[in-house]
Amino acid sequence: MIIPFLYDGPKSAAVTLLLAHGAGAPMDSAWMNGFAEGVGKAGVRVARFEFAYMAARRQGQRKPPPKAETLMDEFRAAIEALMAKTPLLIGGKSMGGRVASMIADEAGVAGLVCLGYPFHPPGQTEKLRTGHLEALKTKTLICQGTRDPFGTRQEVQGYRLSKRIALFWLEDGDHDFRPRLKVSGLTLADNMALAIAKTAAFAGKSAAV
Question: What whole-number distance in Å separates Cα of residue 62 and Cα of residue 82?
Answer without folding.
Answer: 27
